[in-house]
Write a sequence for this structure.
């Protein structure tokens, strides 16, 4: 039995404590039937964006038998999303990323037929799709820094994948153009570099990613000047070594997975990821505060002690200019998967509470969140009645208190 | 540490699916299956299991996993284990951190990482025995000895004979 059923008033109280009052879930798409599976799984979990007074969600499903990327949007004041707009082309498409470019436009990036592609979108009109290079690439993540649109992706270079960052020119219309494109780590990769995410803070541009160079997966990051993505600092390891009690003569280290970044306030930047340093109970959510000049602070566990014996997955992070920072993830502490939240406050992560509209007796997972200019929290997630059942793609609006 | 019988739990849960899976798209790094075994990707092993009527043995590992390496070197290195597992099973290796894509018979596309979540492979290694139809016969969690692998094989074969 879920806490939702046992303690409904407690849940409402918890939701209010986080600083947002959430609406009932809304379907993002009406195509939610057996045999259709929706995926919110972009690198950095950037599947939702707010542009002026419109919220948009991007996802992949295979409603016509081929995995394709779709987008739906709605004005904040309306109670229904638009009919889905197909964003990808004729090929198999995966892992779309979305970002607001300005008050009128969005940018989407996705993998299609083995290459990352980008296009601009405005009021249901689609710009021309461009290829981000000729090489095999995947795991796209976008960030709009005002002066430029940045695209991070993992590009196959021989034996290994390497993280590259491109600057996309957006002009004022719907024509995107690739301006520059450089590897984030200037040294040739010695193992896989995967699932990158870019963000800008103050006068710096930071890219974080999964890196397997030490023989296991770690989170690494490098920084460059904004507008100068070809001059990154030497990459540093963000995810610290585990302090395990048992020294095996085997293995290289613990596992980590799927980093994301969010700027907050005038100069804040935070990274969170899934971390298996306490491996007996699966992944936990860990994070680190950016200190500037390519350096990160010590690691902090994001979820609270009550989640220590449960599995956490799918970390998403949202920040705003006022300094709010909130983390969301899938959490199995109550027996099946719910969406949990924690707020960064006073230099630490508050207690973890379920997102009231995304918890209960069914499975809720794969959150993607964003804060708008007024501090309202927008959340999309995937829901299903049972682990292997068909999925529903849902959205909830969290009004800032 | 519990004995091998304690470690091996029968489930008989009609799982997740009848997992005829195929793989598509972008490939990423593989972790480390034991040497000199015919481990394959999950889709190929499932195809083999179905075509040959053999059960499936799925090894959920992770790149750099110490307990996987220990099991590989101290248990899977045994010639008797190698012979029994190579003869009795279609062998699948799943990197529980990988973004490699699979598609289930239900039509759902998931990654190896998400497949690991479905099989509760939240630690590594986890070893699952499946029927060719994808039903779980049993699983073992954590480091295994040569003896525990041989006992588990005995138990699975006994179940299949019933």
């Amino acid at each position: 039995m879920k806490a939702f059923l046992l303690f409904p008033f407690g849940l409402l109280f918890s939701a209010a404590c986080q600083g947002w009052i959430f609406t009932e879930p809304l379907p993002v798409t009406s195509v939610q039937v057996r045999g259709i599976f929706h995926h919110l799984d972009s690198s950095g979990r950037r599947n939702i964006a707010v542009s002026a007074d419109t919220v948009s969600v991007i996802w992949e499903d295979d409603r016509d038998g081929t995995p394709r990327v779709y987008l739906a949007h709605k004005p904040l004041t309306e109670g229904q999303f638009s009919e889905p707009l197909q964003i990808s082309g004729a090929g198999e498409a995966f892992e779309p990323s979305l970002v607001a470019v300005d008050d009128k436009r969005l940018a989407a990036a996705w993998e299609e037929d083995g290459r990352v592609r980008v296009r601009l979108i405005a009021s249901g009109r689609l710009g021309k799709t461009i290829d981000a290079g000729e090489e095999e690439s995947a795991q796209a993540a976008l960030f709009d820094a005002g002066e430029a649109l940045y695209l991070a992706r993992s590009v196959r270079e021989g034996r290994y994948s390497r993280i590259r960052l491109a600057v996309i020119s957006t002009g004022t219309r719907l024509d995107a153009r690739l301006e520059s494109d450089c590897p984030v780590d200037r040294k040739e990769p010695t193992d896989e570099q995967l699932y990158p995410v870019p963000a800008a803070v103050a006068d710096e541009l930071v890219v974080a990613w999964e890196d397997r160079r030490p023989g296991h997966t770690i989170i690494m990051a490098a920084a460059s000047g904004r507008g100068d993505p070809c001059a990154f600092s030497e990459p540093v390891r963000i995810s610290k070594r585990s302090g395990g009690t048992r020294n095996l003569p085997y293995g290289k280290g613990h596992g980590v997975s799927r980093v994301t970044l969010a700027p907050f306030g005038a100069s804040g930047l935070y990274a969170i990821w899934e971390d298996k340093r306490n491996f007996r109970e699966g992944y936990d959510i860990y994070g680190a505060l950016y200190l500037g000049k390519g350096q990160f602070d010590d690691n902090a566990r994001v979820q609270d002690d009550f989640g220590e014996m449960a599995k956490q997955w799918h970390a998403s992070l949202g920040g705003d200019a006022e300094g709010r920072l909130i983390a969301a993830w899938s959490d199995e502490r109550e027996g099946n998967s719910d969406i949990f939240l924690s707020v960064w406050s006073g230099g630490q992560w508050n207690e973890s509470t379920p997102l009231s509209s995304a918890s209960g007796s069914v499975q809720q997972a794969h959150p993607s969140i964003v804060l708008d200019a007024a501090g309202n929290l927008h959340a999309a997630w995937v829901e299903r009645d049972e682990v292997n059942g068909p999925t529903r793609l849902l959205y909830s609006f969290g009004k800032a208190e | 540490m519990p004995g091998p019988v304690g470690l091996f739990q029968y489930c008989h849960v009609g799982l997740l699916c009848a997992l005829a899976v195929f793989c598509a798209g972008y490939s990423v790094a593989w972790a480390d299956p034991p040497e000199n075994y015919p481990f394959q990707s999950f889709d190929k092993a499932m195809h083999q299991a179905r075509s040959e009527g053999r059960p499936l043995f799925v090894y959920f590992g992770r790149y750099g996993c110490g307990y996987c390496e220990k099991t590989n070197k101290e248990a899977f290195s045994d010639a008797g284990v190698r012979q029994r597992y190579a003869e009795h099973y279609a062998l699948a290796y799943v990197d529980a951190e990988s973004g490699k894509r699979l598609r289930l018979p239900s039509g759902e596309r998931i990654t190896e990482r998400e497949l690991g979540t479905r099989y509760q492979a939240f630690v590594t290694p986890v070893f699952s025995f499946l029927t060719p139809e994808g039903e779980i016969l049993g699983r073992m969690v954590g480091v295994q000895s040569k003896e525990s692998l041989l006992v588990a094989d005995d138990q699975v074969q006994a179940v299949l004979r019933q």
Observations:
- Residues 3-243+250-400 of chain A form a domain with the Neuraminidase fold (CATH 2.120.10.10).
